[in-house]
Amino acid sequence: ATDTYSLYNASMASDANIAGIGRSGSSGSYTYSVIGDGSRPVAYVNWFDAARFVNWMENGQPTGSQVAGVTETGAYTLNGATSGVSISRNPGFNYGLPSESEWYKAAYHQPAGQGGDADNYWLYPTSANAVPNSRNGSLSDPNSANFIRDDSIANGFNGGYAVNNSGSAPTGNALTSAGAFLLADGFYGTFDQAGNLAEWTDGISGGNRIYRGGSWGVLESQLRATARVGTFPTSESPFIGFRIMQVPEPAALSFASLGIACLLFCRKRSI
Fold it and tell me: Which of 36, 224, 251, 264 is buried most deeply by CB count within 10 Å?
């Protein structure tokens, strides 16, 4: 209700391309509402916003002020931090932002012996080395995503921006719902790691945090395994969101019983 650390950005409502959360009232009595059906990922979140959301999950989604035991401690010890790149996940966490390696493995890895590429890694997060098709969701195309591709062929896809099939940027919603590309999942069952919104990781490069995956507003080069992009952790953008990982993975085989220590992503949804 007070939003001490400015988790809310007014563009979450005013930017028509990504609008999904509205806010009314004044500090101390803010209330929030869903714009649309609530199935699209959230943008205009910086790395610290994402870490605070993870802490809130870690603490059981409590109500109250943004303090220790709610947003400031848990998977990450923030205690008011709003800048810097020295913060890392605490031992024993249940929820977290993926490390860059964890994100990369979930997006691109598939053993060659189980249908993967010869080197065990695909070029794109759609389990493919061929350039994905730019589509506004697909129930039939396993190699497709929400990004910009224009092949100059008028056939209903690859006509520019995915959601409007045009070379002109959309004036309204530019995001697809989580799981809109049901056949374009990765080997570990994750969706939407290609396009839609890029996603914060715990990766660090100099004074930047790394984000991966490309977005609705970029070309296919940003979807590739070779693309590594970083920006200030305080940056808030219509092109960057985040993904939460959970340990152990929900409804998954208990890897602990096999003596394997591993971290896998939540299936089917991108937050």
Answer: 264
